[in-house]
Design a protein that fits this description.
Layout (H helix, E strand, L loop, with lengths): L1 H28 L2 E2 L11 E2 L2 H16 L2 H6 L1 H20 L3 H16 L11 H22 L5 H20 L2 H21 L8 H18 L7 H4 L1 H6 L1 H16 L13 H9 L2 H22 L4 H31 L1
Antiparallel strand pairs: 1-2
Length: about 325
């Protein structure tokens, strides 16, 4: 427990110290996100915040994590480094979506080769396929979620906090160390990223967070319960990015738009802001939803088969109602 607290605190301090430096570097190199009709900010804002998160996580683990932990996370960090580099390249000069997607599948493949893979199906082929789809899906979901000040970093911190709790419950030291570093790095970055943000994480950070969280979710094990129940735990913990991506895909397909290449203010956070009248309140609501989903996930870790699937069914019903409600909000805003 003490080691986790030290890792979390070190990552937090490192992120708070490194972020102003990368902010200055972003300004000097012209890596700024300029305002446009589809964006929330009104002034050019430096990118590269994701580099601060990345460095804070790695340095905290190297300094305070046991060497055994560091050896085991090499596969995860190789993949995370690759997607972060692709994000940095995209932030700097733009990158083809297909190149990014191909790189993400390559990074996910690296993780599967280090035995970080889903173990639900009877054959390795199905497990590997499910792992690739999960990792790439969550990586992009966190990337899409990065559309409002403090949103992606806050949701990642909440998810990592619950992963840390589950790691403590099941004594999974590897997951605990990496989750603690993520919590600290995200909280340190949020000091500069909450509304009004003075720096954005960019694709460098959102892809890194998504990839790492997806990998940690696969590493989680619950030896006191059946995998046929506990597979829902990471899905619930990451409910906000999963819901946001699902909402955007359904909404854009209904409007005959390409859901992957069409930008717009049609995400969950944008619709909540239209509903409550404030981006800050919209982000806070997303935080609350993430905490409630995490509490439900905590219950499922100890639930019976019937209890677990009852929670899963209730979640699906709530999500479907949420999609219907958010579509109404978006339609009213467009026709007003």
């Amino acid at each position: 427990m003490t080691t986790y607290v030290l890792i979390l605190a070190s990552a937090l301090i490192l992120a708070m110290g490194v972020t102003p430096l990368v902010r200055r570097l972003a300004r000097r190199t012209g890596m700024v996100d300029r305002p446009s009709a589809r964006k929330q900010h009104s002034v050019p804002t430096p990118l590269l915040g994701g580099l601060a998160i990345y460095l804070a996580v790695i340095l905290a683990l190297i300094a305070l994590g046991d060497r055994f932990y560091v050896n085991q996370v090499i596969g995860i960090f190789l993949g995370a480094t690759l997607v972060s580099f692709l994000g940095l390249w995209d932030d700097r000069q733009g990158l083809s979506p297909w190149v990014k997607l191909g790189g993400q599948f390559l990074a996910a493949g690296i993780v599967t080769m280090t035995d970080v893979r889903i173990g639900l199906f009877p054959g390795d082929v199905l497990d590997i396929a499910a792992t690739l789809l999960w990792v790439v899906g969550i990586t992009n979901a966190m990337n899409l979620l990065d559309n409002m000040d403090g949103l992606s970093g806050g949701i990642a911190a909440i998810a990592a906090l619950f992963f840390l709790l589950f790691a403590l419950m099941s004594k999974q030291y590897l997951v605990g160390a990496l989750a603690a570093a993520l919590v600290g790095a995200c909280l340190g970055f949020l000091f500069y990223n909450l509304n009004p943000a003075s720096i954005f994480m960019g694709d460098t950070g959102s892809l890194f967070l998504g990839f790492t969280l997806a990998s940690l979710a696969i590493k989680l094990r619950f030896p006191d319960n059946s995998a046929f129940v506990t597979w829902m735990v990471p899905v619930l913990v990451l409910a906000v990015p999963i819901f946001d991506t699902t909402l955007v895909i359904i909404s854009r397909l209904r409007r005959h738009l390409n859901p992957l290449t069409t930008p717009g203010k049609d995400h969950l956070s944008h619709r909540l802001a239209q509903l409550v009248g404030s981006p800050r309140e919209a982000v806070l609501i997303c935080y609350i939803i993430a905490f409630l989903a995490g509490i439900a996930a905590t219950f499922v870790t100890q639930a019976s088969l019937v209890e677990g699937y009852a929670v899963g069914l209730a979640t699906v019903i709530i999500a479907l109602f949420g999609i219907w409600k958010m579509e109404q909000v978006y339609h009213r805003a467009r026709t007003a």
